[in-house]
Amino acid sequence: MEQHQVRVHRSDEDLPRKEQLAWRIAEVAADLVPVDDEVTDMVVNRVLDNAAVAAASLTRRPVAAARSQALAHPPSAGGRGAGVSGVGPGARVSPEWAAWANGVAVRELDFHDTFLAADYSHPGDNIPAVLAVAQHMGRSGADVVRGIVTAYEIQVDLVRSICLHEHKIDHVAHLGPAAAAGIGTLLGLDVPTIHQAVGQALHTTTATRQSRKGEISSWKAYAPAFAGKMAVEAVDRAMRGETSPAPIYEGEDGFIAWLLSGPGHVYTVPLPAAGEPKRGILDTYTKEHSAEYQAQALIDLARRMRRDVPRALDPAQVASIVIATSHHTHHVIGSGSGDPQKYDPRASRETLDHSIPYIFTVALQDGAWHHVDSYAPERAQRPDTVQLWQRTTTREDPEWTRRYHSHDPAQKAFGGRVEVTFTDGTTYRDEIAVADAHPLGARPFGRQQYVEKFRTLAQGVLDDAEVERFLALAQRLPELGPEEVALLDLTARAGLLESLPAPRGIF
C-alpha cells in the first residue's frame, strides 16, 4: 500500500491534479489488476448477504416507497435497464433508480456487512449501484466482481484514514466516491473520467449525521441509496465530459477545509500501489443480528449471560447494568449520546436499532435477536423490559477505545465488559471482544452461513424455487455472461408485493 498525505492547499499553491486524492482514487479504479480467488469468494458472499437482507425487507414501507419511485422511471435510452428487488425480470428501470430502490432494500434492516476504523461504514451499500449499471450496460459477472472489489477497496481505505463522525458528517460521504470508483472499474473507464466522477460523487453526497441522531427516521436507510444513485449520475456526467469541483478534498474551500479537520491537519490515506491486488473486502465483516454493528458482540454476550446468570433477567433483582465499551459505542448507540429517545419505549425501529441499552436488554431477556420481533412495539413496551432497560447504561473505557482503533487484528475489538449489580449487593461481570460471527469469533461466518442466512430471511418472501435459482446463479457470479447478470434479481412470491399499499407521490 502507498501512503498518501492529504491536506488543505491554498488556491495559489496550485496542487497538481495527479497529486490530488480523487485522482489517486481514480488511478486505483483504472488499474485492472487480477482478482484472486479468496477475494472473489468474498464478493459472492457479500452478494448473497445483500440479497438476504433485501428479501427480508421487501414488504417494509420505506422499501415499498423506494420501489414505487423506481418503477415510475423506465429504462433510459442508453441501455437495457436494471432490475428492482422483488419485482422480477419482467420489470426494468433506469439504473440510477434501480440503485436507489435496491439500496434502500439492502440498508433498511441494518443487517449487512460493516467496516469500522477511523470512521464506520457498510461497504455492501456499493453493490446495488455497481450491479444496476452492469445490468443496464450489459456487463459480465467478472466485470461486476472487479467493480465491487474496487468499491470496497476505496471505501475501506477512506474509512481507515478519514474520520467523518467527529465532525458530524454522515458516513455516506465515503460511499459516494467508492461507488463512483467501482462503477468506473466496471466500465473500464480511464483515470481522468473516473477522477471527475469521484469528485462529483463526494460533492453531492456530503450531509450531516442528524440522520443517525435523535429521532432516527427512514432516511437512515435512504441515505446510502441516495449516495449510490448520485454515484451513477456522477459517472454518467463524467462520461459525457463534464467536470467536478477540484481539488475536491484538498481545496481551500473544499471537503477537508470546511467539513473535516481543516487547514493544518494531514490525513494519511493508504491506497494500493500500481499493480497491487485490491483486498480491502477481506477486512469487512457481516452481521448475524439485525442491529448496529457495535451491538453484535454485546447481543452474543447477552445470550451467554442469560444462560449463565438467569436472575439478571428480572428487574426486581437488578439494581443496574453498566456496559463499559469504546468511545464510539458509548457516544453513538449508548447513553453517552445524550439522546433520550434511546430510552423511549415508543421510539422508531431506527432509533431502537441505535440503542444498545434497549438491544442488550431484549437480547438478555429473550436469548435471541430477531429482525422484526425484537423491534415490535409490544416488545419494546413490555413493562419488565422497560424497567430493566432504564437501569442499563454505558460508559467509555479507554482500553476498549484503544482496542476499537487498534490496527492489530488480534487486538481490534467491538465489544465491551458488562457489570450487573444486583439488589442484594452482589455483582456479575463478563466481557466479549468480537461477535461470534466475526472472523475471530466463536462461530465465524463462511459460505454455509451466508447461504443459510439467505434461506432464513427469504422464508415467506420468495418461493423455494426462487431461493434455489438465485443461490445457484449468484454463486457462479464470476462466470456469468451479461444475460445471466441481468437475472441477478429477486422475484417475490406471487401476490406478496401486490398486497401492499401503493404509496403515491409526484412521479
TrEMBL record:
Residues 289-477 form the MmgE/PrpD C-terminal domain. GO terms for molecular function: 2-methylcitrate dehydratase activity. It catalyses: (2S,3S)-2-methylcitrate = 2-methyl-cis-aconitate + H2O. Residues 78-88 have a biased composition (Gly residues). Residues 67-88 are annotated as: Disordered. Residues 19-263 form the MmgE/PrpD N-terminal domain. Its EC number is 4.2.1.79. Keywords: Lyase. InterPro entries: MmgE/PrpD_sf, MmgE/PrpD_sf_1, MmgE/PrpD_sf_2, MmgE_PrpD, MmgE_PrpD_C, MmgE_PrpD_N. It is an enzyme of class 4 (lyase). Monomer. Belongs to the PrpD family. This is 2-methylcitrate dehydratase. It comes from Kineococcus xinjiangensis.
